[in-house]
Amino acid sequence: MEKINFKKLKLKVEKEIKEAKDLKELDLIYKSYFGPEGTIRALTKTLNKLPEKKKKIFGKKVNEFKEFFQELIKRKSTEIKEKVERELEEKETIDITLPGKKIKTGTLHPLTLILQKVEDIFQSMGFSIVEGPEIENEWYNFDALNIPKDHPARDLWDTFYIKSEKKHPKKTGRLLLRTHTSPVQIRFMEKNFPPFRIIAPGRVFRHEATDARHEINFYQVEGLMVDKNISVANFKAILQEFLNKFFEKNVKIRLRPSYFPFTEPSFEVDVLCINCQGRGCSICSREGWIELMGAGMVHPNVFKNAGILPSEGWQGFAFGLGLERLAMAKYRINDIRLFYSSDLRFLNQFQL
Amino acid sequence: MKFSYNFLQTFFERKLPQPEKLAQILTMHAFEVKEVEKQEKDFVFDIDVLPNRPDCFSHMGIAREISAILGLKMKTPEIDIKEEKGLRTNDFLKIKVENFKDCQRYTARVVFDVKVEPSPFWLCSILKSCGLRPINNIVDITNYVMLETGQPLHAFDFDKIFGDQVKKIIVKRAKKGEKFVSLDGEEYDLDNEILVIADQKNTLAIAGIKGGKKAEIDENTKRIVLESANFNSKRIRLGSRKIDLKTDASLRFEHGISPDLTEFAIDRAAYLIQKIAKGKVLKGKIDLYPHKILPKRILFEFEKIKSLLSVNISKSKVIEIFQKLGLRVISEKKGKFLIEIPTLRQDLSIQEDLIEEIGRIYGWERIPAILPTTVLLPAKKNLDVFWEERAKNILKEVGMNEIYSYSFISKRDKEIFKFKELVEIENPVSAEFSYLRPSLIPNLLKVIVKNQHFFKEIKIFEIGKVFPGIEKKEKKMLTGAITGNAFFEAKGIVDCLFQKLGIPKVWYDEFQPTPEATQNSIWHLKKSAEIKVNHEEVGFLGEISPKILSALSLKNRVVVFDLDFEKISNLASEEVIYQPISPFPPVIRDISVLVPKSILVEEVLNKIENAGGEVLIDVDLFDIFEGENLPEDKKSLAFHLIFQAKNRALNSEEVNEILQKIIEALESEGWEIRK
């Protein structure tokens, strides 16, 4: 039997493995030693002919060599794999500035976005949402709100009337499209007992010429808070809180005198133009202030008409917020007609 | 209403703040000044006087406000009449008021020897500032005094009134069918709802609204009758509506001015006529005022200010504000004031009115902001609103644009869609907006028409109220429209919507219209379906009929789903019950069936499901194929069949057995299984 110099063999193997270029070559090297035709395999075949003692020593040496060999192979193959992977990644570069795959979603109408925000803020302050009908009668839209028949105050609300062959009942009067959301106040108070706080969003209608500021249908959010000792100061605080949250910054408001038959005192609430900070721009019609709502303390006659006795000490505030005005201020829109234009070039801008 | 800065200045010794500054002060404490415009040497204020303040439809009224806000002392306009001793008004003029309900007060004077000529420059320029056209000194003075005091006046040519020596003026209702020619030559038809000023023969004026040609002042006029009356506000309002004429006078009357104004105003006018037109004012005046109104008294609790405004104002400050406004404190006892209200201020009648006066004069900006201290109850969840918001978000996520359309439809829409029982508007703004929408569909389709030039693919929806008829309740609908051959896309969206709203078991039924409905249907008869949940129809899905498409000039086909949102909102649920996940692997087999084109997929599915039994947990149609290599009247449907048992692993023999049953069931229909 040929004497094997394992030392030499190790050096040889080390060199061969080091020079292997890829996994395939490595595999060939492995096979040339441990494969069926391999050097070591051939050696072990002759092993049986050796005496027991030599066999043991030789076997030990073969194993040692095997371990040494496998360790080398393992290291080299990891090295080659890493290299290959690295090269693969190198080759697979992409242009990350290419556009992403288009995921097409739709849009919510800007007034929906605004309304959801308004509802969230008021609900967080304990205001429940209620709704009312769009076709109303004269009682709920006017009389119950302390706006008597044949009173010039009715001219403040240019009204659409519904054509009807039937004679209208004396108390409820003619059918009409509600000119404000205030009738919901009456409908709610008839069925509920104070204290309460509600908002009533909805569509309202005015018979007027349309322009950048006016539409024949638009949205209001009615607010009503009734309790003992609710005051103008409370209204100011709730409103300020609402507007700060809505515009996500501290906004400046002002109250100025106004007249609504259903509130006393009454005021108009303006917010300092978000766009121009009062310098005057197209959003605020160059006035510096944006008229947001009419408001006031609920008139005793309104309580009475809804079946609540003011003598029991209930008092509170009510307001009618113009949703479009709020949306115009928030999104810097300068023409109310856009909301009802259904122009997708407008609507597609609200990808929120 | 227009006001002259120079005119306002005449009521004060002290200089008024600069126009812009004054405008701001008025806006914050009284009325909104919408515009300040320089006009020659004057500034014109456009003031939005509130409708409950007819006392401020005058420069004196605004001056009173300025005086109260700024604490400036106000002058009363000069009156210094030198009455003719020998000539008594009573000897020349008689007044008869037929009904004092129509006319609370009638005050008249007679002036002789007037010289009618153009007004002096200062008078003309004030009238022009206020938007009035100078005519002659007599007419101009009556207008000037109206601007000054708020009391409309009228002057008649004494000699044109019927009668010889003594003239008689009657305040009465017009006769039905009576014709009247106004100063500017317009003809009006009157009736007995309209109040007029007449002599014994002719109608001279429509009371409180417009003067007539008959007794017009002209350059030859020498003797005049001045009228300063208080007409019933409702009567004037009614009359003005009937003849469709609003004038500076009618505006003031219909808002209800104080009857106590007539005397001051007529004396002021007589004085100016004496001064400017050199007229001789006859002795005495006629003043019919049988039911004199008395100043109101309001009991006012001091504590109420604190309760309503949450502000600490001293008693002396409150009294000061009342005095500045001309309100008299009659007595004070234990924090309760008795306040006398001048008759000019008809708007003040309860203590809340007085609190408003305090609030605005003191300044709303000085009221602090204080959060209420009250029990914090959480808001009640409104399910309708909740589901509406959820539905909108779902449709947005699947790629639809939400739109808001008008609540109205046009006469043309009515014809195209053959709507009946519409709710009609009595006073529409135009034919475009004649009826309330009975459905959201017409406006959605019109939105597509509008956008079709810019977008190839349009998917829109709206949630809104519709009005099915005057006797029927308005209801909330959810309607979507998709362009193109999109029936199944729309159906998929409806499925997705129902699933996400937690509504199981949605069913689509073939649309089987009555013959009459077939005629008028807006739907494509072969491509529409009723949407049902629990055997109840909740909506409709279908392609819009080609005749509607062409009537509206729609370029593309449109598929619409139209859902009763109230029903959907009632069915919606947030409940989910967890189903245990089977630990046993599913077995999937594919099958392909050749069926006649007329067979609905639903029918094939039903056969498969019935034969498959409970271990067949899902059937998924993955391919429909028609055309090449297939007989012309056939289509090929390919399904994934998914088998899974809850309690055991299915073996291949078991699955093959069930599959064989399915194949037999399909073949028994004469359908061919393609291997």
Secondary-structure blueprint:
The complex is a heterodimer of chains A (352) and B (675).
Chain A: H1 6-19, H2 23-34, H3 39-47, H4 52-91, H5 110-124, E1 128-129, E2 135-137, H6 138-141, E3 175-177, H7 183-191, E4 196-205, E5 217-228, H8 232-247, E6 253-257, E7 263-272, E8 289-298, H9 300-305, E9 314-322, H10 323-331, H11 344-347
Parallel strand pairs in A: 1-4
Antiparallel strand pairs in A: 2-3, 4-5, 5-9, 6-7, 7-8, 8-9
Helix pairs in contact in A: 1-4, 5-10
Chain B: E1 2-4, H1 5-9, H2 19-29, E2 32-39, E3 42-48, H3 59-70, H4 89-92, E4 93-97, E5 103-112, H5 121-129, H6 137-149, E6 154-157, E7 167-173, E8 179-181, E9 187-189, E10 195-198, E11 203-206, E12 210-211, E13 224-231, H7 233-242, H8 248-254, H9 261-276, E14 280-281, E15 286-288, E16 296-301, H10 302-309, H11 315-324, E17 328-333, E18 336-341, H12 351-362, H13 383-397, E19 401-402, E20 408-409, H14 411-417, E21 435-436, H15 441-451, E22 459-466, E23 475-483, H16 487-500, E24 506-510, H17 515-520, E25 523-533, E26 536-544, H18 546-551, E27 558-564, H19 565-571, E28 587-596, H20 601-612, E29 616-625, E30 634-643, H21 652-667, E31 672-674
Parallel strand pairs in B: 4-7, 19-22
Antiparallel strand pairs in B: 1-3, 2-3, 5-13, 5-14, 5-15, 6-13, 7-10, 8-9, 10-11, 11-12, 16-18, 17-18, 20-21, 22-23, 23-27, 24-25, 25-26, 26-27, 28-30, 28-31, 29-30
